[in-house]
Amino acid sequence: MAEVEVRRGVRMAYEDHWFGPMWTTPSTVVMLHGNSESSKAWNPWVPHLAGRYRVVRPDMPGFGASPLPEGKYGWTASELAVDLLNFLNAMRIERCHLIAAKIGGSVAMHFASDHSDRLVSLTLCGSPIRGGGPTNAELIRTKGVRGWAAETMRSRLGSAASEAQLRWWTDELMGKSKEQASLATTASRIEMDLEARLPRITAPTLMLTTTESGLQSVAEVKRFAALLPDARVIVLPGDSFHIAAVAPDECARHTLEFIVSQERSG
User: Which residues lie closer than 8 Å to 246 by C-beta, 6 or more apart?
Assistant: First the structure.
């Protein structure tokens, strides 16, 4: 992976793929992963997108191949949103389609509420608007990141996920995350509330959720969507709150249709 310094003491690793004609200049898609994940979480999406768009997948600070930031770092949605802006500037990405999942979506919403002018579109996959209580942070403190991931993986990925997928997400992805980053991100979410920011997100927005998501009900997602000037909701069958991981092909198809439509209308 390549790496870029986004500000003093903060470096971010990233993947950068474009599989279309090399003599053309495609629009850019930027993808943000969730807590205790990395850019690898988006691997199944890349074949759907990278023949039409440049696909840039950063590892957020302290996750994946990105080193822990130097000095004090809080891993709040607001701080991560600042470093998303710094990343885009460092990469000279003026505008992009932003796709995000889970807490990455919370970061994306915070970013979009201040910088919708930098976005052609925004896609959110199972992304919380409000905090979720202290349980997950307590599990990380007592059982470590891998123990927490193992205990919560079935509820995270839902009943349709295979045992092989559960093991990979536990052992090869989330379980390898740095505890400092995972715990701080989880703890920072407890008091998070982005609802007041939603009306400021003027970028066209797509929200993907499931019929039985344990994160928030369909009614809640639709209520939140109604607060945005231009948002639509797609509800997929299932009980996973990480639909981007469990149904990547279907999610990528809906997302691709959405971002193509925004380019045509724009």
Answer: 157, 158, 160, 161, 165, 238, 240
Largest CA distance in the chain: 53
Strands 28-32 and 2-7 turn out to be unpaired
Q: Which of 203, 206, 224, 200 is nearest to 113 (CA)?
A: 200
d(CA 18, CA 189): 34
Q: What structural domains and CATH numbers belong to the chain? A: 2-132+193-265 (3.40.50.1820)
Measuring CA to CA, how many Å separate 95 from each of 67, 88, 200, 263?
26, 8, 17, 12
- Do 82 and 68 contact (CB within 8 A), yes or no? no
User: Buried b / exposed e across 97-121, counting CB within 10 Å, b at 16+?
Assistant: bbbbbbbbbbbbbbbbbebbebbbb
pLDDT in tens, 35-47: 999 999 999 999 9
pLDDT digits (tens, 9 = 90+) for 154-202: 999 999 999 999 999 999 999 999 999 999 999 999 999 999 999 999 9
Strand 96-101 relative to strand 231-236: parallel, antiparallel, unpaired? unpaired
- What angle (nearest 5°) sits at the alpha carbon of residue 110, between those of residues 211 and 101? 40
Angstrom distance (rounded) from CA 130 to CA 142: 24
Nearest to 16, CA basis, from 123, 80, 93: 93
pTM of the model: 0.97
